[in-house]
Design a protein that fits this description.
alpha/beta; D-Maltodextrin-Binding Protein, domain 2; 2 domains; 9-stranded mixed sheet; 3-stranded parallel sheet; 21 helices; 45% helix; globular; disordered N terminus; disordered C terminus
């Protein structure tokens, strides 16, 4: 009898948990990648729209693969997650995602009403293995990979090419993102200029090249770069550039925005270049994993994240650029301090001459030289091995000093970042 009662009690508890789970939304997102004040606002809005209460359990990650491992093994039943483009491809190929229903009843569909036409094009380039990526993923933020440089020591011309990282003039003043995928993509674009110029291959086609030949070419090039590199950085490059300890940084636009703003306050002139040879863009997006429990709240969360006023709040806090092409977003980020840009590719007709920050929104003439990276699938270990050989086991002196200083300052930086909301996030790889 006692055993029977225990089994019954456990069953009742399980039912109660399942019922409660319908009022819980589990969100898994990058750290420092949202204005956290929008979370309680979502809970209130969701109840207003549906008549049902919901409580958001919000967790963060710093590495795509950490998130993926939890989803893949089914250890966590997250309802909505924000992976990067190449991970979205991997999840689609592995049937790990559920389609995102667009039926919101009387609630506006902010997703499809406001999505930039350019982002539709970017997501259309993803390899969904027969699936339409737009049915399974909704964009959140996007950006570019380029060269952050100190105009006091580096000319605009010198920073206009990826080959700047091989310029001995800047020895021990160069920082490079510790990101095999990003570095391979930029360098293979540089190395294949003849083929690109002749039309033998396109940028999009080049991003599908994971051959041994291309791996060897990039490795040989980077081995020549290695003696000039002050450090392979995941997150400390921004501070080093701001403090003028480094002059050149191969990095992401989000990091560049933060560094440029911080440097300006202390009289340091940092700039960001999208090299003439071509470059890659990246995009993160919301998805609903296969083990999700609260599909209704998940799709409403994604819709809410695309509401223009919420978009603006999240961009203001994170420093990254939303995928939204809503008129309200265009108005919010128009800034007469900058020269006019052709942003019609992103916001549509009427946005041919918009004064905006070119680091956030590149001009059409720049974006036409861009492409999207892809997941390497079974070739990923070969890419990782190549990168490990490039970096080697022996860090140089500056790297050791930089890491030591960075670790020692972590607590202070964390407090400073919260106060300043300093747009910092360890992105992607």
């Amino acid at each position: 009898m006692k055993k029977t009662f225990s089994i019954l009690a456990a069953a009742l508890m399980l039912c109660a948990c399942e019922q409660d789970r319908g009022q819980i939304l589990k969100v898994y997102n990058w750290s420092a990648y949202i204005d956290e004040s929008v979370i309680p606002d979502f809970e209130q809005w969701y109840e207003e729209q549906t008549g049902e209460p919901v409580h958001v359990i919000y967790q963060t990650f710093d590495v795509n693969e950490t998130m993926l491992a939890k989803i893949e093994k089914g250890h966590e039943d997250f309802d909505v997650v924000c992976p990067s483009d190449y991970i979205i491809e991997r999840m689609l190929r592995s049937d790990m995602l559920l389609p995102i229903d667009r039926d919101f009843g009387s609630t506006p569909n902010y997703i499809d009403d406001n999505l930039s036409p350019y982002i539709r094009e970017v997501f259309g380039k993803m390899d969904g293995s027969g699936k339409n990526p737009m049915d399974y993923a909704v964009g959140y933020m996007w950006g570019t990979t380029g060269i952050l440089y100190n105009a006091k020591y580096v000319t605009d011309e010198e920073a206009s090419t990826w080959d700047i990282i091989r310029n001995p003039k800047f020895a021990d003043k160069i920082l490079i993102k510790d990101s095999a995928r990003d570095i391979f993509s930029q360098i293979i674009i540089y190395l294949r200029q003849a083929e690109l110029q002749s039309g033998e291959v396109t940028l999009d086609e080049l991003m599908l090249d994971s051959s041994d030949h291309s791996l060897a070419d990039v490795e040989a090039y980077m081995q020549g770069v290695k003696p000039l590199v002050a450090g392979w950085e995941a997150d400390f490059g921004k501070e080093q550039m701001t403090q003028e300890r480094a002059w050149v940084n191969l990095t992401w636009s989000g990091d560049a925005v933060w560094a440029i703003e911080e440097a300006k306050e202390i009289g340091v002139d940092l700039r960001f270049s999208l090299p003439k040879e071509g470059f890659t863009v990246w995009a993160d997006g919301w998805v609903i994993p296969q083990y999700a429990k609260n599909l209704k709240a998940a799709k409403y969360w994604i819709n809410f994240m695309n509401r223009p006023d919420i978009v603006i709040r999240n961009v203001d806090v994170t420093g990254y650029v939303s995928v939204s092409g809503a008129p309200e977003v265009l108005e919010a980020f128009t800034d007469e301090d900058y020269e006019a840009l052709d942003l019609s590719y992103f916001f549509g007709p009427g946005a041919e001459e918009v004064c905006a920050n070119p680091v956030l929104y590149p001009d059409r003439s720049d974006i036409e030289r861009s492409t999207l990276e892809h997941d390497w699938g079974e070739r990923t270990p070969d890419l990782v091995a190549m990168w490990a050989r490039v970096k080697g086991d022996n860090a140089n002196a500056m790297t050791i000093v930089v890491v030591a200083v960075f670790v020692a300052a972590l607590a202070a930086v964390a407090i400073y970042s919260k106060v300043r909301k300093s747009h910092k996030r360890k992105r992607r790889r």
